[in-house]
Amino acid sequence: MAAKKSPTTIDEYLGSFPKDTRIILENIRRAIRNTAPDAIETISYGIPAFDLKNRHLVFFAGWKHHISIYPIPAGDEALQHEISQYKKGKGTMQFPLNKPMPYGLIEKIVAVLIQDHTGGK
Fold first, then answer.
1. pTM of the shown model
2. 3.30.230.10, 3.40.50.150, 3.90.1150.200, 3.40.50.1220: which CATH number matches 10-118?
3. How many other β-carbons are positioned within 10 Å of the β-carbon of residue 99?
4. 77-113 per-position pLDDT tens digit
5. Which residue ranges make up each domain of the chain?
6. pLDDT tens across 18-38, in order?
7. Measured between alpha carbons, how far is 27 from 76 in angstroms, rounded to an integer?
8. DSSP collapsed to 3 states, the chain
9. Rounded distance, CA 25 to CA 17, Å?
10. β-sheet bridge partners, residue 84
């Protein structure tokens, strides 16, 4: 049996998912792009990533029952409270596919990651 080919682009990655999940992943991609328009799309560790200033900013991945976003930003106490229901494991947030996707929260997370990434600049 041939080994499964790893995706080399985000489009290839998204194309491997069922339509409903692919639409959610495309919307997450758009939310990240809206918040980090200067970030470069790439694939790292076999999943979509956005790089900013030659360093990974944020990753996202689709799974059978959820979407993961990595890493968890430092953020203030209010943000930590807002994302606490989604924290799963070290540095990972999981957003269940059977609930509305919090795209606004994802944009807020990316904005904080940009601040963390650039030292607030």
1. 0.89
2. 3.90.1150.200
3. 8
4. 888 899 999 988 788 999 999 999 999 999 999 999 9
5. 10-118
6. 999 999 999 999 999 999 999
7. 25
8. CCCCCCCCCHHHHHHCCCHHHHHHHHHHHHHHHHHCCCCEEEEECCEEEEEECCEEEEEEEECCCEEEEECCCCCCHHHHHHHHHHECCCCCEEEECCCCCCHHHHHHHHHHHHHHHHCCC
9. 9
10. none
Residue 92 and residue 58 in contact, taking contact as beta carbons nearer than 8 Å: no
Amino acid identity for residue 10 in this structure = I
As given in the structure block, the two tokens for residue 26 are: 């495309």
Site of tokens 């639409």: 23
